[in-house]
């Protein structure tokens, strides 16, 4: 029997998010399941809720991807390469706001051609504003 968990559910385009029960997915060979402790909503989530962009294939739906939690084989699927340890100094709520912010900065960094292994010191007098 498949287990269930509570999730923030979007019942229809433009509808309000509500908490409801969903079937807990099973991870495949290239995913992990995360017990979600906190979620964050970002501008992409609002556009998806209000305008259906990016498209939502089926309603009711669970949208968004900015979460923090514990790898525990339940609640939310994630690609393991996109999962990082949350520093002890950050709460789950603080950690949940990082995914979109970090990927935005990383995309900007790589789009302008700066190699990921680049390291600057204050003596280099280099700066990037993202």
TrEMBL record:
- Which intervals hold domain Alcohol dehydrogenase-like N-terminal? 28-73
User: Which Pfam family is an annotated match for this chain, by its short name?
Assistant: ADH_N
Query: Which residues, by range, are in coiled-coil regions?
Result: none
Q: Which InterPro entries match?
A: ADH-like_N, GroES-like_sf, Lipid_raft_assoc_Zn_ADH
Give the domain of life. Eukaryota
Entries under Gene3D superfamilies matching the protein: Medium-chain alcohol dehydrogenases, catalytic domain (3.90.180.10)
Supply the name of the protein: Alcohol dehydrogenase-like N-terminal domain-containing protein
């Amino acid at each position: 029997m498949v287990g269930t968990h509570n999730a923030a559910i979007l019942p229809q385009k433009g509808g309000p998010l509500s908490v409801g029960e969903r079937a807990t997915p099973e991870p495949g060979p290239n995913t992990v399941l995360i017990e979600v402790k906190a979620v964050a909503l970002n501008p992409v989530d609002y556009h998806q809720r209000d305008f259906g962009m990016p498209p939502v294939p089926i309603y009711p739906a669970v949208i968004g991807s900015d979460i923090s939690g514990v790898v525990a084989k339940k609640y939310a699927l994630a690609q393991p390469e996109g999962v990082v340890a949350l520093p002890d100094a950050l709460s789950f709520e603080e950690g949940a706001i990082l995914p979109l912010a970090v990927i935005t900065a990383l995309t900007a960094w790589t789009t302008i051609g700066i190699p990921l292994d680049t390291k600057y010191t204050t003596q280099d007098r280099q700066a990037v504003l993202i």
